[in-house]
Amino acid sequence: MRLVFDCRYVRIDHHDGISRFTAALVGEIGRRHPVTMLISDHRQLAKLPALPWELVSSPTSPREPWVARQVRKLKPDVVFSPMQTMGSWGRNYGLVLTLHDLIYYENRTPPRDLPAFVRGLWRLYHLAWWPQRILLNRADAVVTVSETSAGLIRKHHLTKRPLSVVHNAADALGTPDLPRRRPAGKRLVYMGSFMSYKGVDTLVRAVATLPDHELHLMSRISDEERGRLTRLAPEARLVFHDGATDAEYADVLASATALVTASKAEGFGIPLVEAMRLGTPVVVTDIPIFREIGGDAAVYFPADDAPAAARAIASLDEPGEWERRSEASAELAARFTWSESAEKLLALLLEVGGASGRAAHARR
């Protein structure tokens, strides 16, 4: 059976969530079954495993609705895309699409790195549910990355197709000696973008009231945003890394008091799993997806509540509290592995590919 994996969303500079999801899963599946990758830029190969590949048009190209005309030349039995927007008109193969989350229905500001015309379409797309339903129902099956997202998809009746949860996971950032010892300093880590729904302002205001803590902001940041956050709370001890390698990120995270995030919505939360695997506690907003990942190990606070965030962070200073949260975090994080997710996804792809092949044979 020929499997084709859409890798056109892999970033050429550094992984974001969807890029990492793609690269990790195609690598794991490639160890279990022959797979061909679709790319749209040769530079993507630097972030992908050494597997067979084919070059097709970009997912942001006006040709995207008809990309199946290019893909069907490869004679696939089934194609998997880590997004829901892959064109499907004219396909003659099985298709599995992914919907990670419904964040942009509440927060309609699109990612800044998209072309202007795509950003405009993005806003229009998220004004109603019906465009999403049309896309998803053109697939044979739909994947999402968490039970939280699956619940929302069912709540809004976004697809009639079979829905499966293939959990996100996290790359190994090291093998810590467990149980961990409480770090000497009071370093907090934030990994994520600076879009408004991420709640970074809340974290900065919280740290401003904790003079013995410093907040390390790991992601790339514009000069404008750096200045704004600095002015927001001048007394906050902020350390801007403006991007970090995996090794640098692992070093900071492994010596941190906690990973913190004040996001109002997520489809998963890879940084939580990355921290928890290292035995670093997480202090996060009390939203369903973080409950799904963090369980009883995480410390929670209400969104947009900087004083509550500060109290949650300070609670780790209580005797034995940091150590208890650290141990529980490492245990819970073991639930999320790329290996297990790849096994589940591969089984689904083989099922869809087999059904598609039988249907094609019946038509002959």
Automatic annotation (TrEMBL):
Gene Ontology molecular functions: glycosyltransferase activity
Signal sequence bounds: none
Top-level lineage group: Bacteria
Glycosyltransferase subfamily 4-like N-terminal domain location: 16-171
Transmembrane segments: none
Entries under Pfam families matching the protein: Glyco_trans_1_4 (PF13692), Glyco_transf_4 (PF13439)
Gene3D superfamilies: Glycogen Phosphorylase B
Entry keywords, A to Z: Glycosyltransferase, Transferase
Protein name, entry field: Glycosyltransferase involved in cell wall biosynthesis
Species of provenance: Agromyces flavus
Taxonomic lineage: Bacteria, Bacillati, Actinomycetota, Actinomycetes, Micrococcales
